[in-house]
Write a structure and sequence with these properties.
The chain has eleven helices and eight strands. With 304 residues, the chain is an alpha/beta fold. The longest helix is centred in the middle third of the chain and has 30 residues. It is globular.
């Protein structure tokens, strides 16, 4: 099961279910070639020339599309760019990781210019830059991931039925496993992106001995209390509870990595801290990181 973090699980960091990002070669004010990678959902109306309705999210392979990372790889292989500009509200978390690895492979400079916004999966991809900067007036915004953010009321209905406790048990077990997978995947990724030397086998070993969120939660009075509240208040409460469970599952595993950071190699503690900052906010409570936080914690590394 632990090896699942090496495969695509398709969790989302934001609410979109669209098909692609948009990639546009441009020049900056000094005539240098840059590649703008953005989604049309977030840009202003005057910038939407040439946008298609489906170009509004970080998206992985599927339905005849090879995935944003594959498109980026092809473009960077074809020619070099001075910078890659990012402007997106996010999307598929796995694709954000893959795009970050492509950016690192091609030794790119990632940049969020003034007036641009980089949220969620975009902030994960951003870390792939060898050089990274967010201009004053640019926004780097973070929040927890969620696979249930877009679930419609009819899909949530089973959690508030008479047998909803079984659905909740299954969801908690799956979320606990996903929390371990994503804590591992994101930790190894962040550690590498900030110049550490990831030790995958040791990380797997540490996580395998981490507290089992599902076992602890399902064996506590909180499980019955949450279920009773969901039944009483309906699908809105169920939705909020499921997103909280996702977040807590991840935080439990990340806390264990933090406690054992001294066993996980160079810059492990710093990588954990970056993830704590990035994933502690509710998905409905996105937090913008200020310039001091970005610089002090290694998200940006360019001196002005």
């Amino acid at each position: 099961m632990m090896r699942r973090w090496l495969a695509t699980a398709g969790l989302l960091l934001c609410c979109s279910e669209a098909m692609a990002l948009k990639f546009k070669p441009m020049t900056d004010s000094e005539g240098r070639p840059v590649l703008a990678v953005y989604d049309c959902a977030r840009i202003t109306e005057e910038r939407k020339a040439g946008c298609q309705d489906h170009e509004n999210s970080f998206t992985g392979p599927g339905k005849g599309y090879k995935g944003d990372a594959a498109v980026l790889e092809a473009m960077l292989r074809e020619r070099g760019y001075y910078q890659v500009w990012l402007y997106s509200g996010g999307g598929n978390l796995d694709e954000g990781i893959r795009m970050g690895r492509v950016l690192r492979q091609h030794r790119q400079f990632t940049y969020v210019p003034k007036g641009f916004i980089c949220v969620s999966a975009c902030t994960v991809a951003f870390l792939g830059g060898v050089l990274r900067d967010v201009a004053p007036g640019g926004a780097y915004e973070v929040h927890a991931y969620s696979g249930v953010k877009n679930w419609p009321p009819e899909r949530l209905q089973r959690f508030v039925s008479a047998e909803g406790d079984v659905s909740l048990k299954n969801f908690v077990t799956e979320s606990s496993d996903d929390g371990m997978i994503y804590a591992g995947r994101l930790f190894l990724y962040a550690q590498q992106m900030i110049g550490g030397q990831p030790d995958e086998e040791r990380t797997i070993e540490v996580l395998a001995n981490s507290p089992d969120y599902a076992k602890d939660y399902l064996g506590s009075p909180r499980f019955r209390s949450d279920f009773a509240q969901m039944k009483a208040e309906g699908v809105g409460r169920a939705h909020e509870t499921l997103m909280r469970i996702e977040r807590e599952s991840f935080e439990t595993r990340l806390a264990h990595l933090k406690a054992h950071a001294d066993r996980l190699g160079e810059r492990s503690a710093k990588a954990v801290r970056m993830l704590e900052i990035m994933f502690s906010s509710r998905i409905d409570g996105t937090a913008e990181l200020d310039q001091n936080t970005l610089r002090q914690n290694g998200y940006i590394n360019v001196r002005r």
